[in-house]
Design brief:
The chain is of the alpha+beta class. It has one domain: TATA-Binding Protein (2-Layer Sandwich), CATH 3.30.310. Helices cover about 30% and strands about 30% of the residues. The protein is built from four helices and seven strands. The strands form two sheets. It has a five-stranded antiparallel β-sheet with strand order 2-6-5-4-3, with helices on one face. A two-stranded antiparallel sheet has the order 1-7. β3 and β4 form a beta hairpin. α3 packs across α4. It starts with 8 loop residues before the first helix and ends in an 11-residue tail after the last helix.
């Protein structure tokens, strides 16, 4: 039985739905994540994640590895950088450099990519 006002230790570390959807000041450290996939695969996973989260893609630049998208009436820049042949960095930052937005935008993008990095790609044969 939980006493009113007291939270179990595990519940304190879990983000609430309200903290994910309410605009707040977000630290830059939450906007970067290293994934164990090459940069090309991360680029396509990022596009898929933006699409799955129902955000609007405004611009895609494959050569430099960035995607400009709109979420919660605010533009964001997703930038993919290759660290080595097996690891890449994804930075998701607000285009206007004002880090006041719902944290869920970044968390949901990263979560989708994490869940789908182990999926094997299948090449379809032409008929």
């Amino acid at each position: 039985m939980v006493v009113s006002g007291a939270l179990p230790a595990a519940a304190e570390t879990v983000m609430t739905v309200q903290s994910l959807v309410t605009p707040q000041n977000v630290d830059f450290e939450y906007c970067n994540k290293i994934f164990n996939v090459n940069s090309e695969r991360l680029f396509y996973l990022t596009i898929a994640s933006i699409n799955a989260n129902k955000f609007r893609i405004d611009e895609i630049q494959t050569k430099s590895g960035y995607i400009l998208f709109t979420a919660a009436n605010k533009q964001f820049l997703a930038n993919i950088s290759e660290l080595d042949s097996k690891r890449s960095l994804l930075k998701v930052t607000p285009a206007n450099n004002i880090y006041y937005f719902p944290l869920g935008i970044v968390v949901n993008l990263f979560k989708y990519i994490e869940l789908n990095t182990d999926l094997q790609t299948v090449e379809l044969k032409k008929i």
